[in-house]
Amino acid sequence: MVVVSNGWLEHAAEVQSFLRANGLTMSAPTVPSGVEPGSGSSTLEAPPVAASSLVPPTLGELEKVDGIPWAPHVGLTNATDENTRESVAARGNGLRSPPAKAILKCRPNSHPFQNRTLLLEANQEVKVGRSVPRHRVAENNAIFDCKVLSRNHAVLWYSDGKFFIRDTGSSNGTFINNQRLSPMSHRSDPFEVSSGDIVQFGVDVTENSRKETHGCIVATLKLFLPDGRETKASQSTCVGEIPPEDLHRLNQYVQEMVQREQMLESKLVDLQKILELSKVNAESSWQAMIDEDRLLNRIDILENKLQNYQKTATEDKLREEVLKLQEDKLLYQDSAKEALRKVYQERYDAIQKLAGTERALCSSEDECSVFKEQAIKAQAELRDTLLRYNSLQQKYDEQVEKNSQLEGQIAQITTSALIEPPESNEEIDKSLKENYAEGEHKVNAKEALMNLFAKSDLKKPRRI
């Protein structure tokens, strides 16, 4: 005999229709003949079916459907059945909580793209990747027309009031506030992001053949909860303390680069001067050749005229013309010789200047090598000084610790001295003087080291 409440059969039918709409199934209860729904509680003969056919879905099944706990049992009141039916009907009509929202704003150092607005359903991942024929660029997705991205680069999702991102094994990586999530081609763990974080997909890639640089995607994240409130900005920073050794090495690299740039600039200036001088000499030589050809042509013309005059003119006129031509010829020869002499003199001066420049270059290279050796020696001295300073600093710290221990012992001895006879005071004064002399020696050593640094050109080392 099974006792059911009023309206239980109608409620079970509504639940069955809702589960079918969401892809779940449940065996429908059988209604024996002679029983009318809604007639109050009744006494029925149980049909020969499994017990699960008359029991509604369990709590876990309904929680998987829409996240609402529901546990039907025998003896529910009419008011409870009515509220449950209204809740199931409302969710069956598609009334769900609004999704979370993520906005990607393009930054100036990014590959250009339009700002994206992503709607994030709870526990549903949104893919970030490169545009392909099946997935095109749109304002409501995270697909970008960028060559440095992978097709499945990363995923972004919302869960339990938090936003997460994960790199799906991309080759160029995913960065949050300049921190890479995983090594190359490795899947990363979920990383929680906050509003205001800077996300970078990929890195800039330069093609050697075309000398063309493909930019990566750099965006500012703006995250909004389903109720419209923006999440709090991240308070964590990814900047760590830089060791002094790295700073010293970086300073050396910078100084070497500056020296190389200065040397290259001086060499470029010298080469520019030599090139300009060569251009001037080439132009003057070319002009001298042109003048020489012009003079030779002039001589040929005059010789032709002389032949014509010999045929037509008298001997006196010919003699006068010959004298004039000879004078002109001498004048042209003198001017040509003077021009050639100037050209050769300028060429000789240019060769002398070039030789002087080469000698100056050799001397500069020798000085540079000497300066490099001096710099290497200075660096070695600096390292030795740093080591000595560290050892002295360690000894000083040990002495300070000993002094603190001695002060504690002095306090104990002082308290006990009030009871002991005065002869013990001499031993106390002796031990105090010895400890004071040793501490003063350490302090004097440290002051001497600091004076050495102050007199030298080296910077004061940082305390490690």
From TrEMBL:
Keyword Transmembrane: yes
InterPro entries linked to this entry: Cent_Immune-Sig_Mod, FHA_dom, SMAD_FHA_dom_sf
UniProt keyword terms in alphabetical order: Cell membrane, Coiled coil, Cytoplasm, Cytoskeleton, Endoplasmic reticulum, Membrane, Mitochondrion, Phosphoprotein, Transmembrane, Transmembrane helix
Matching PROSITE patterns: FHA_DOMAIN (PS50006)
Compartment list: Cell membrane, Sarcolemma; Cytoplasm, Cytoskeleton, Microtubule organizing center, Centrosome; Endoplasmic reticulum membrane; Mitochondrion membrane
Record membrane topology: Single-pass type IV membrane protein; Single-pass membrane protein
Function statement: Associates with the striatin-interacting phosphatase and kinase (STRIPAK) core complex, forming the extended (SIKE1:SLMAP)STRIPAK complex. The (SIKE1:SLMAP)STRIPAK complex dephosphorylates STK3 leading to the inhibition of Hippo signaling and the control of cell growth. May play a role during myoblast fusion.
PANTHER family named in the record: CENTROSOMAL PROTEIN OF 170 KDA (PTHR15715), LD47843P (PTHR15715:SF37)
Family under the similarity heading: Belongs to the SLMAP family.
Subunit structure: Homodimer. Interacts with myosin. Interacts with SIKE1 and both associate with the STRIPAK core complex composed of PP2A catalytic and scaffolding subunits, the striatins (PP2A regulatory subunits), the striatin-associated proteins MOB4, STRIP1 and STRIP2, PDCD10 and members of the STE20 kinases, such as STK24 and STK26. Interacts (via FHA domain) with STK3 (when phosphorylated); the interaction associates STK3 with the STRIPAK complex.
Annotated protein name in UniProt: Sarcolemmal membrane-associated protein
Species, as recorded: Nyssomyia neivai
